[in-house]
Amino acid sequence: MEDTIASIATSLGVGAISIIRVSGDNAIKIVNKIFKGKDLESVRSHTIHYGHIVYDGETIDEVLVTVMRAPKTYTMEDVVEINCHGGISSTNKVLEILFLNGCRSAEAGEFTKRAFLNGRIDLMQAEAVADLINSETEKERKIAINGLEGNSSKLIKKLRQKLIDIISNIEVNIDYPEYEDIYEVTKADLEKEIKEIKSSLENIIKESEDGKIIKDGIKTVIVGRPNVGKSSLLNRLLDSNKAIVTDIPGTTRDIVEGSILISGIKLNIIDTAGIRETSDKVEQIGVSKSIEALNTADLVLLLLNNNEILTQEDLELIKKTEEKNTIIVINKNDLEEKIDISNLKSSNIIYINTIEEDGIDNLKEKIKNMFNLEKFETSNYNYITNTRQLSKIKECLKITLDIEQGLKDNLDLDILEIDLKNIWNTLGLVVGESYEEELLDELFSKFCVGK
To answer: Which residue, 61, 88, 230, 396, has most beta carbons within 10 Å?
Structure first.
């Protein structure tokens, strides 16, 4: 943390500008050594200055330099940002000169790591920075910005405060039993409090499922026996000819993927190889991948043909998908109806025609209704979607169940207090009130270098 670090903060390539970010105690001093213009060490904070980067008497680039003094900066250290022309050569040259004058190359995510270690943001906010950078939809952006503003952190910190109040009262009762005017925590009190904490944790986990849909999208798998029109359906949904379409069964040998937005939610669509018994080794691999994709899908589009009777392969697929979120899509509704759907248990049945694109809008509407996507239009986006954070919250929920069992078994409060402290500490790992250095190294290594 004592080093002054530097990195390119924008995508490296040809463009209007490139920004090089410098942070650390000597940031202003180092940049001032290579800047020809105003004396940067004497200028006011949060001001921009025109000049040139000069090294060994040679003008390297014409720049604008922003000076920001600690603590009101992203890292809470002195920060300088150099706006260069957006050429690869000139940007790299300026960065090289900074290294020659005392800067160290920033590690991946090191600017955000310093922001966390210096107390500007907590760990949930730091992870929200990465989510914001990687967001692909408007709803993903809203979740990330809520996390960055600390709204998700407040939920966890409120629970931690509630826990520390309970723990403190229990410890006072244990350590100072002679004081009669101190509030005494009873097992009935703890039972009521732990019930509220458990309810809060369950609510966070439940709402995280909605957040997962927004962040990760809906994994949608198109399945069916060969030559029922799976690739055609994929092409119609994507409105492009991504998958090869022929009348030869088994054309699709591997997974073909694409994404669309429905009500601002990503549908990650996978066109699978036709599922059937086959002696073709390549096709067998494709069928295995299809079954694997089916098992992990959030939504299954099971494609059947309107002008054919149900085959044994169709019936087996219907059985395989009965316990999943499945829409039965009956293709070729322009041809004579030979399919018998009277024995199908599902009410989620849509008729389409991939040649004329008839029924595609109805299919999208069915998906919207199945996942209640309209509710996300008025959502507060205060979700916790990070896998690490959720795993810790689920650990806490499990401990609350242990406490409830302990109360039923009439365990002493000082024994139950140990579990309360475990919940408090685990929630501390969520927001970064406590952490391990290895965790930070792994977490921030996933960031881009300039962030």
So the answer is: 230
User: HSE-up of 272 (CA within 13 Å, CB side)?
Assistant: 28
Residues 86-144: pLDDT tens digits? 888 999 999 999 999 999 999 999 999 999 999 999 999 999 998 888 888 888 888 88
Bridge partners, residue 327, by sequence: 301
- 3.30.470.20, 3.40.50.300, 3.40.140.10, 1.10.10.60: which CATH number matches 216-377? 3.40.50.300
- Neighbour-count burial of 416, counting CB atoms closer than 10 A to its CB (0-12 exposed, 13-18 middle, 19+ buried): buried
pLDDT tens string 370-412 = 888 877 665 567 788 888 999 999 999 999 999 999 999 999 8
Q: Does domain 5-117 have CATH number 3.30.1360.120?
A: yes
Question: Residue for token digits 């530097």?
Answer: 6
Check: CB of residue 419 under 8 Å from CB of residue 399: yes
CA separation (Å) from 440 to 1, 252, 326, 432?
Answer: 14, 43, 40, 9
Q: Which helix (H) or strand (E) holds 94?
A: helix 88-100
CB burial readout 304-323, b (16+ within 10 A) else e: bbbebebeebbeebbebbee
- Predicted TM-score (pTM) of the model is 0.73
Residues 6+ apart with CB under 8 A from 432: 116, 122, 123, 124, 126
The answer to whether 332 touches 312, Cβ cutoff 8 Å, is no
Q: Could you tell me the two tokens for 344?
A: 């199908």
Residue spans per domain, the chain = 5-117, 151-213+383-444, 216-377
Residues counted in the chain? 451
> What is the DSSP annotation of 240-298?
S--S---SSTT---S-EEEEEEETTEEEEEEEPPPPS----HHHHHHHHHHHHHHHT-S
